Amino acid sequence: MGCCTGRCSLVCLCALQLLSALERQIFDFLGFQWAPILGNFLHIIVVILGLFGTIQYRPRYIMVYTVWTALWVTWNVFIICFYLEVGGLSKDTDLMTFNISVHRSWWREHGPGCVRRVLPPSAHDMMDDYTYVSVTGCVVDFQYLEVIHSAVQILLSLVGFVYACYVISISMEEEDTFDFIGGLDAHSHYRDHVELKPVKPVEISNDIDSEMRLLDLS
């Protein structure tokens, strides 16, 4: 009963993680954030693997999901530190785009209440993409929206880690119990089979008696 409840909870949690990861992937694509895009892609694959393992009762797949949740929490903690500029990190660097472009988070210009104005470029700033954009009136700054997204991912991953460990432990206990009972049944069946095996009577051939009679007559 406990295993079924844990598996159902883990299935629902994996489905919720998939939805949240897909939502985040869409906005990271819009912002050309290549590092988060790659991370989200791997996360979606592993969550699908964990969902399949939970439904099909494959503990090994759930173990892979459990290990990944720990790595996913670490990655999202790094993202939070990046946008809050902790430890010398700067949200204005091109780290999230692998230094390929100068794009920033999509929420920087499209957050709640943000008013985006395109300014005329100056001659000495022709190569700066964001010199021409002015964003004002944002209710929540983009870095805090990214932090909220990462915090949600961390929360879901921690809960998923707990449920996954619970399902794995219950599954291992059930497998051990099944093997123990199955071993006893096999031993009992073998013993009963040996004890109840009928003994085949030995038939004595009459050829020897016939030969003895012939010798006596001679």
UniProtKB/TrEMBL annotation:
Native source species: Rattus norvegicus
Coiled-coil regions in this chain?
none
Q: Where in the cell is it found?
A: Cell membrane
The protein in question is named Sodium/potassium-transporting ATPase subunit beta-1-interacting protein
Grouped into one coarse class, the protein's main location is membrane
Q: Which keywords has UniProt assigned to this entry?
A: Cell membrane, Membrane, Signal, Transmembrane, Transmembrane helix
Write out the transmembrane intervals: 34-55, 62-86, 147-168
Claim: Membrane is one of the keywords in the record: yes
Gene from which this protein is expressed: Nkain3
